[in-house]
From TrEMBL:
<dbReference type="InterPro" id="IPR039366">
    <property type="entry name" value="Pilotin"/>
</dbReference>
<protein>
    <recommendedName>
        <fullName>Lipoprotein</fullName>
    </recommendedName>
</protein>
<feature type="signal peptide">
    <location>
        <begin position="1"/>
        <end position="19"/>
    </location>
</feature>
<keyword id="KW-0732">Signal</keyword>
<dbReference type="InterPro" id="IPR053196">
    <property type="entry name" value="Lipoprotein_YbaY-like"/>
</dbReference>
<dbReference type="Pfam" id="PF09619">
    <property type="entry name" value="YscW"/>
</dbReference>
Length: 155
């Protein structure tokens, strides 16, 4: 499990998320099957930044094909009749669902009058969609939030 966490951390740090003013941090993994995520520590978070963490889970525990990728998108969904605008994309490898995630972001880069939502896509090694969130969940506005995300099999 420690090797998986180190691989996940390396993959997260290798993404261009830092160019989006996002800092990816390692989550605390537990060996229990508890589906709720612990509240993240704020000791390493820059002043004014926010932390969102949680678990991405399917209806049942699922083993994913080797090389699968989980992609979280933060989207501006303010305009109902217009396509959403992706503000942030975070991708990391995973071999199972349920899997933990955590990201930090600077709310100064977000317009407080807009509505932001979080969506999830899980793709296989060939890029084929395996799972996705069937509805977007609003991005929490609290400084330290837990947001557990559910995905369903792609049709």
């Amino acid at each position: 499990m420690k090797r998986f966490a180190a691989l996940l951390l390396a993959a997260l740090l290798a993404t261009p998320a830092s160019a989006q003013s996002i800092t990816i941090t390692r989550t605390t993994t537990s060996t229990s099957t508890n589906t709720s995520a612990p509240m993240p520590s704020l000791t390493d978070v820059p002043a004014g930044w926010r932390v969102v963490s949680g678990r991405i889970s399917a209806p049942n525990e699922v083993r994913l094909p080797s090389g699968s990728t989980v992609t979280l998108n933060i989207e501006d969904v303010t305009r109902l009749n217009a396509p959403s605008t992706t503000r942030l994309t975070v991708s990391f490898p995973s071999t199972r669902l349920s899997t933990p995630y955590q990201f930090q972001y600077n709310p100064a880069r977000m317009n407080p009058r807009r509505v932001y939502a979080v969506t999830v896509r899980v793709t296989g090694p060939n890029g084929r969609l395996l799972y996705s969130s069937n509805k977007a969940q609003e991005l929490p506005r609290s400084q330290n939030a837990v947001l557990n995300l559910k995905v369903t099999p792609a049709r």
